[in-house]
Specification:
Helix content is 40%, strand content 14%. The chain is an alpha/beta fold. 44% of the residues are buried. Bound molecules: pyridoxal-5'-phosphate. This is Aminotransferase class V domain-containing protein.
Length: 488
Amino acid sequence: MTPNTNNSIFTKYLRKLRHSENKVDHVKPHKDIAKNEKTEFDRFRREEYSRIDESGTVYLDYAGAALYPRSLLIKHYEFLEKHILGNPHSASSASMLSSQVELQARQGVLDYFDADSDQYMVVFTSNASAGLKLVAEAYPFGPDKALILSEDSHNSLHGMRKYASQATAQTIYYEVHDTGLKVTNATESGGHLAPSGERGLVVFTAQSNVTGIKQDLGLVEKARLAGFDTIVDIAALATTSRVSINSIKADAAVVSFYKLFGYPTGLGALIMKQKFAQKLRRPYFGGGTIETVQVPGNNVTMTEGPSRSTYKIFTSQDGTTNFLALPAVIYGLRFMDEHIDKLEVRVRTLIDFTRQALSIIRYKNGIRLVTIHGTDDAARRGGTLALTFHKSNGDDVACEKIEVLANNEKISLRSGCLCNPAMTAILLKRRNDIQTIGEHLTFSDLLEKMGVDSLGIVRISFGIASNHEDAKKFLSFAKRLATGLELD
Ligand SMILES: Cc1ncc(COP(=O)(O)O)c(C=O)c1O
């Protein structure tokens, strides 16, 4: 990522801060950790994440949230401590500094995600879900403009169907196989909607938050060429992979920054083509998005952007941007840029190692302890494993039980439906049950009707600070489960 090199006050501050980056290393190594320090990565983990080993935590929930590096907190703190930042978009120096930070953060997002600034714009949102909602509420859905989604979608994507149905648009799901790979083609599913032209909105999940399986993003371009608008949910993919929006050629993408570099929470981005933004009709405007509101009267003009004449497009979220957190986004993206390529390789190694080691753990009677869900194709896997644990008679163990046992050993993992009920049901071979079970059921009704106590899987996920020790501690935990009778 290349930050702006103009002569702004902010750039000067950044230069100074970069200079002071070398001083960040005033962390005393924990003696056991220092003893084990062997590689550049060990040093990185000690300097940036010593709290993991000092607390004895085995953190395996990077798909939930990444952990923030120490240097990011320090740089952010130092910047805030030294500068006067006011509410942006005014002429005071305090305000102008915030506006410059905002501009630089926007450019940083475009650079990091390789999105051409002549085509794409950045709307800062509170998270990925808020970006999806902004599009859903403003997209011109209609009887011939459907919403097309993967079954393997986070609930925040399913929520978009509320807006589609209000506009009498169909919501069409394309099916996902229990390998985690997509079976029906989204554009084929929606191909009957209109002979040509604009057929609706396809929302792709680039990487499953349940299985960690990466989808074929060549389909985005195919959908676009077939006349669909396209959004890519890169919330999971971007945690351990470099993403190029120019290559994917999507009309829009959504992301949450805490999933990449852990801090700050409450900030994400909707990165979208200006042309796509012009199709949107917002049902609401607020301070920050508008230039003029005629009162009394109906005229509204937008603050900035390619078309200022009407209340069609938007360039920021409503109300004041989280401007104090934006310096941390600039630093965080720079941090990611430095580490992401190595991170991708390291996570792949950890996943391969853990998959192989887990797959051979068995009870004395030969029954496997764990089913690892999803394709065996290592190239299609991100940093996540979806697991079902078994008793020694082969029956499934309630995922919640594994989370409790893991938690007793300071292993942070996740269990349940993971905000992606369809994919979880598919992995558990329950898709048909869910489809035929009726509507208006609470989760406990659903369990009762299905005659089960639990419906979910166990998820472990590696990320920016993960090392082999983390994987080995999880594997030792699993081996103990296979030798004891705790799960029977
Ligand atoms: C693939 C995917 N999409 C969307 C989301 C929603 O992200 P957020 O809750 O940050 O809005 C998540 C969160 O886990 C996710 O993993």
